[in-house]
Amino acid sequence: PADALPEEQQELHDVSIDPENPPPHQIAALPRIDIERVLEERQIIPNIRLYFAYAWRMYCLNSGTMSGVTMLWAVIYFSSCFVAKAIVKAAGMSKSFDGRLLGYLIEMVPISLVYMPGVMSGYLAVHRALGNDQAIIAENCFGVFRNWESYRQAVPLGMFLHLGMCMTWYPLVLPMIFFLAFTTFSMSILLEHPQFGWFGSVKLSCKLVWKYGWVLVSAYAGLFLFNLILFIWNMFRVLCIVTIPVGLLTFVVAYHHLIGINGVRRDLFFDVDMEELAPAEQQQMQEMHPPEIGEEEIEGEDDARAGMENGNDEDLYRPRNVEIDAKG
What we know:
Elements: H1 7-13, H2 35-41, H3 48-61, H4 63-90, H5 97-132, H6 148-169, H7 173-182, H8 186-192, H9 197-212, H10 214-232, H11 240-258, H12 279-288, H13 301-309
Helix pairs in contact: 3-11, 4-5, 4-11, 5-6, 5-11, 6-7, 6-8, 6-9, 7-10, 8-9, 10-11
């Protein structure tokens, strides 16, 4: 119960939860993550190789749903751009700066109202799959459209991202890559912490990427340029329906590891037996996951479980400030 938690956790326990993305029943009573404190205190070394490996495994298990939804939103995006260019061309303004600006404004309407909330729905489906340890369900890929509060926040966020892309694309591609890299976690943060709003999510995403520096930026730049080359090369353009969702999954897995989904941070090494590793590998694992501030080791858990079987569960469930791993 909330009144049995320490005072610091009682405050976190009252943070609002998105009704469209409820935590699974086994962790519903856990306090939500204080993301601002986590960004200041938690020190974890990102591992892009492992993020990609988990993302690829997840895509292989949900390839039909992920590729199908990616094709749907790609058709909507490029249809919006094509219609906008056709309108500008019909008005005889295709070669002028005013015509280009008019095209951006026209395509921004369907992209902000339909495409970006659709992308955020894809994030929602992945968050639910990771948080509940289940498959990616096609119905969840449209979840933002069924919740007014989520949709109301997704529209201005999508408008901001689209305007940022338009403003940073033509000078050079690199500014747009940096813009998208620093805002890549904004949708995940908005889904997990809607109380910050869309602009607060953008700021926290920038803080998160800035905290881990070039590791995340270079990974995003590599994925972006790889997808751009595939798209320009007509022969391999169809591969984008695989590489784009894998890239999305990679950074959602990164968010799950660095911050946490549904109040739980997933340790990507939870299925590794430390005793079977070489001493050098054990030291590397410990360096990648240093103990966190305020984390305590559970002592006497076996005795507590034995007492619980006899009807005494007081010791096992006494208030502790510990981190729950992926197995709960």
